[in-house]
TrEMBL record:
<protein>
    <submittedName>
        <fullName>GNAT family N-acetyltransferase</fullName>
    </submittedName>
</protein>
<keyword id="KW-0808">Transferase</keyword>
<dbReference type="InterPro" id="IPR000182">
    <property type="entry name" value="GNAT_dom"/>
</dbReference>
<dbReference type="GO" id="GO:0016747">
    <property type="term" value="F:acyltransferase activity, transferring groups other than amino-acyl groups"/>
</dbReference>
<dbReference type="Pfam" id="PF00583">
    <property type="entry name" value="Acetyltransf_1"/>
</dbReference>
<feature type="domain" description="N-acetyltransferase">
    <location>
        <begin position="147"/>
        <end position="295"/>
    </location>
</feature>
<dbReference type="InterPro" id="IPR016181">
    <property type="entry name" value="Acyl_CoA_acyltransferase"/>
</dbReference>
Length: 295
């Protein structure tokens, strides 16, 4: 008999056992687990639903660990079953989430893993480069007369960010975000206050970018300008501002991720001495009513 359980104080030791046997569970993820165990009880309650365990009779045989980054959007950090590629058992993990939930997973997958993910409904939509820059000194930012950088103001600029971010990424196939997604993000541990900026052309927002934390590292995300202002390297101004903020925070390195097909962005990043450190696939999946309950 199979049973799915969200992480709790009772099965935590079983989760650690699974993690200790999982050779791909990185040192940073182990650090996350150690920190989790030291959290106050009330904080643990908020994280329980990030980790779902599968139990066969009295033995725990697998888990799925996700991070929710928008209201109904999740990044899968790890999904694994011990010596088992039964598609029904993998499907059972997703049955614990609402219809319409969107999942992303990224990595360098073995062929059997890709087959399993494709059978679940995941589709490959991009190859990503992870890039890193050693930051040694601040940039001197000289803006054109009609441009200015505007700090995102929490509680005031959510609608502006929604509009500009949807315009930037509309043509790139990303789902539109809502204000509730932004408010949700503002309450997550990865969110950094005073590290999000708009690029303004006169009184109009034409670009956006922000910093977030991912474990011990600092990442530039959601960086771009709206289509009618592309080709002018305007995103460089936001990029340099975010790098300067990283320096002020005491970081020596900064990271970002970029689609292999985004030649314009890659050119700007390489000009700013970002180097490719890894390549991996990203796959996406939206839960529908088609998945059948097996438990």
């Amino acid at each position: 008999m199979y049973r799915y359980e969200f992480l709790n104080l009772i099965n935590l030791k079983n989760f650690r056992r699974l993690v200790n046997k999982d050779y791909e569970f990185t040192k940073l993820q182990h650090k996350f687990l150690d920190e989790y165990e030291n959290l106050p009880f009330i904080m643990k309650l908020f994280r329980y639903k990030n980790i779902l365990l599968l139990k066969e009779n009295e033995k725990y045989i697998g888990y799925m660990w996700v991070t929710r980054y928008e209201f109904k959007s999740y990044k899968i950090n790890r999904i694994i079953l011990e010596n088992n590629y039964d598609i029904k058992l993998y499907t059972g993990f997703f049955n614990k989430f609402p219809v319409g939930a969107y999942f992303e997973i990224e990595g360098t997958f073995e062929q059997e893993e890709l087959i399993m993910l494709e059978r679940l409904g995941f589709k490959k939509f991009e190859l990503l480069y992870e890039m890193k820059k050693e930051i040694l000194q601040e940039y001197n930012i000289s803006l054109e007369d009609n441009l200015q950088l505007k700090l995102f103001e929490k509680g005031k600029d959510e609608e502006l960010r929604k509009d500009i971010q949807n315009k930037i990424f509309k043509a790139k196939g990303r789902a539109d975000i809502e204000i509730c997604d932004i408010v949700f993000e503002e309450n997550q541990e990865y969110y950094i206050e005073n590290a999000s900026y708009f690029l303004m052309h006169e009184d109009k927002a034409i670009g956006y970018g922000q910093l977030i934390k991912e474990y011990e590292n600092l990442y530039i995300v959601n960086l771009g300008v709206i289509p009618e202002f592309r080709g002018k390297a305007y995103s460089s101004f936001i990029l340099r501002k975010l790098i300067n903020i990283a320096i002020s925070m005491g970081y020596k390195d900064i990271f970002l991720k970029c689609n292999e097909k985004n030649i314009a962005a890659l050119t700007i990043y390489k000009k700013h001495e970002f180097e490719i450190i890894s390549k991996y696939k990203m796959l996406g999946f939206t839960k529908t009513n088609k998945e059948k309950e097996i438990i």
